[in-house]
Hints:
7-stranded mixed β-sheet, alpha/beta, 4-stranded antiparallel β-sheet, about 25% helix, GMP Synthetase, Chain A, domain 3, about 325 residues, 8 helices, Rossmann fold, 18 strands
Amino acid sequence: MSEEQAIAFLKDWRAGKTEFIIHSSGSTGDPKPIVLKREWMEWSAKVSAEIFKPKNTDALFCCLPLDKVGGLMMLVRSEIWGIPVKVVEPSANPLLTDVQGTIISLTPYQLHHILKNDESLDRLLQFREVLIGGASINSELEFAIQELGYVNTFRHSYGMSETYSHVALRTINGTEASDYYTPLRDIRIEQGLDNCAIIYTPYYPEGLHTNDIIELDSQGRFKVTGRADFIINTGGVKISTEMVEKLIADNLKTDNPFIISSVKDEVLGEKIVLVCTNQEKFNYSDWSFLDTYSPYAKPKEIIQIRDIPINRSGKVDRLKIKEMLSSET
């Protein structure tokens, strides 16, 4: 299916088509159609080339959905950069078979599975550039990347469907590793009154207001600390689910999948719960380390489900989890 989609897109692209329709990831609501204009797709690919510096000997490996911006822009980069692209069906671990390429784009979910398999890990190390996007990276995965050494460069992207993929990048490993994203050329990031990022690009000169809560430094770089729409109001106190998840991951050092969510509560309004696939790994944990953030951040209940749902963009499907929890209460 992906190969057929790629052939159809490239046919339209080479015929000079000026607009393409994709759909948003649906991580915070129903997927919505987004019109991408050719001139800005070309612009994004050209600006990205200044970072990735493609050579004649390079080749792209695309294992992302082609109806989303991440996968589609791999095809555009191939056309603009003048290098070949190999397209395969998206899967949890797309490197289980022989692969060819020097530049690859992955979701954190895919990277997690690749690192768990020795054969796919060896294949990953053949890529000189590994672009990770679509979701945040937890501290355990980031540490695992850094433990691989400096054989290749891992970059974490910041962007969305509306911004034609990434508008900022941060390096995860090597001497240039940083927690802060650096905007690409002609991109400016400002912090709104609600502490959320406002993105200014040549195609959004008026600014695109996001729900990403950021810290901004004096050089214009920024760190994402959470999302405004992932905030839980429990007992009148606003708690960032992503902040709690990071603290739990940092302190428990567990590779068992989990997510922080909430269910309705008569007293608190919303009650914080930890949703996982193995309840025993979390039942007897001491949550006092969360007091440094907020006493209200402690999970009031541990709920076990069979699998953590992932949407087609490789992100945890938080809305699906909320639906599952509400149907059980």
